[in-house]
Amino acid sequence: MSRIRRVIPGVDPKLLIKDATKAMPDPTRRLFLRGGASLGALTFLTGCDIVDGFSAEQALMKISYFNDRAQAWLFNPNRLAPTYPESAITRPFPFNAYYPVEEAPEVDGENYELEVGGLVENKKTWTLKELYALPEESQITRHICVEGWSAIGKWSGTRLSEFLRRVGADLTAKYVWFRCAEGYHTSIDMPTALHPQTQMTFKFDGEILPTKYGFPMKVRIPTKLGFKNPKHVMEMAVINNWNPGYWEEKGYNWFSGS
Amino acid sequence: MTAEATHPAGDTGAVRASGTIHPAWLRITHWINAIAVVMMIGSGWEIYNASPLFPFSYPKSITLGGWLAGALLWHFAAMWLLVVNGLVYVTLGVLTGRFRRKLLPIRPGEVVADARAALRGRLSHDDLSVYNAVQKLLYLGVILASVVVVLSGLAIWKPVQLQELTALLGGYDFARYVHFAAMAAIVGFLLIHVIMAFLVPKSLRAMVIGR
């Protein structure tokens, strides 16, 4: 039961604590153990001392991080998500978020400025007018929700990879992080950010993104589950430090590749 | 046919000499599989509940994980146990010739006769080292269902990276039904399997201590 305090060379204890706090479970995340503990106790916990800090949750999270690496290994940067004809588009396209549709954040397009930060050379902000002037392409792809359902939609915008090059991003960095108007945030691996179908999206089904689908900007990633496709994006940053995301901190797998 | 003719005599002799019905590798993989399957089904039901395919949900009391994220963590952890253990089991089953000896051939006439006998409660389980035709069919069937459940699981987990497999299984949405059907087949097998193990307790003993 004794805890040994080890000082790891090259690690700033204050930063470490800050990072660890981010990964700390909140009440929602705690929920999954309540149901899991009964069977978990039978399978994972036999012979393990919980007081020493080992728990089914920690073991499962470790395996989830291993699964992140397994999926990164499986990810083929040149493999395109299947595309569909216009006739296959799901209408109406479902709205999904952790809040009801009427609570979707209303972003003022006139005063909107996309913040671009982190490991980029040009940190200028981008107005909608400037963003709309970027080269546009469309995709009709399948959106797959972590819940299991799927829907086909048509998204138009500019390739994130081209945008990252345009702003002089460090393409050897590990992650691209997104912050949204309602406080949602998520992060993706650089290979996925550079995938040809990963798109800064401004239109859905040929129309300017309505509020419910993420006005003014969504990031469409057909190689990842729906919750990794942030809406109402206000800021993006190219980073090397681990900052998983809103749902990821509650227990969803970070990579969540399709 | 020739393989069949050359094997039976020597094999039964070996079994009788050592008295072992189930070799250690089989018993170990069987029980690891039992744990993995229970975890996969329990968490799979909770995942199903997040977006049910049919107008019913599984009661929370029989699911694993508490909520969707917890269930997914269990599912994608137990998946490694299931697949790695399953590969060891199938590889040894084929290499040792056990599958061929124990599960083949399955003759339709024998299946019908044994099924009738079983339903009248007259099917003997005296010799645990020999499987009757119904057992053969069920064991082969559950192995097949397990292959389908793993393939359809991969198809809905990786519909972009493994898109050929997903297409082969009828596309993402259809593959979800395939995954469900294979799970249902395995659950159906489990019900019969567990009931039989309790009706013939010495079969349970044989799966624990080998004899």
What does this structure look like?
Chain A is 24% helix and 21% strand. Chain A contains 6 helices and 10 strands. In chain A, a hairpin with a 5-residue loop joins strand 3 and strand 4 (150-159). Chain B has 2 domains: 21-96, no CATH class; 102-211, no CATH class. In chain B, 74% of the residues lie in helices and 0% in strands. The model of chain B is unreliable at 1-17 (pLDDT under 50).
Report on the biggest sheet of chain B: none
Largest interface: A-B, 40 and 35 residues
The end-to-end distance of chain A, rounded to whole angstroms, is 42 Å
Portion in beta strands of chain B: under 5%
Count, helices of chain B: 10
Average pLDDT score of chain A: 87
Say how many strands of chain B there are. 0
Please identify the structural class of chain A as seen in this structure.
alpha+beta
Mass-distribution shape of chain B: globular
Reported for the largest beta sheet of chain A, the result is:
5 strands, mixed
Fraction in beta strands of chain A:
15-25%
Provide the helix percentage of chain A: 10-25%
Order of helices and strands of chain B: HHHHHHHHHH
Low-confidence segments of chain B, given as residue ranges, are 1-17
For this structure, the CATH topology of the largest domain in chain A is Sulfite Oxidase, Chain A, domain 2
Write the H/E string of chain A, N to C: HHHEEHEEHEEHEEEE
**Helical stretch count of chain A?**
6
Mean pLDDT of chain B: 91
Number of domains of chain A: 2
Give the assembly state of these chains.
Answer: heterodimer
Structural class of chain B: mainly alpha
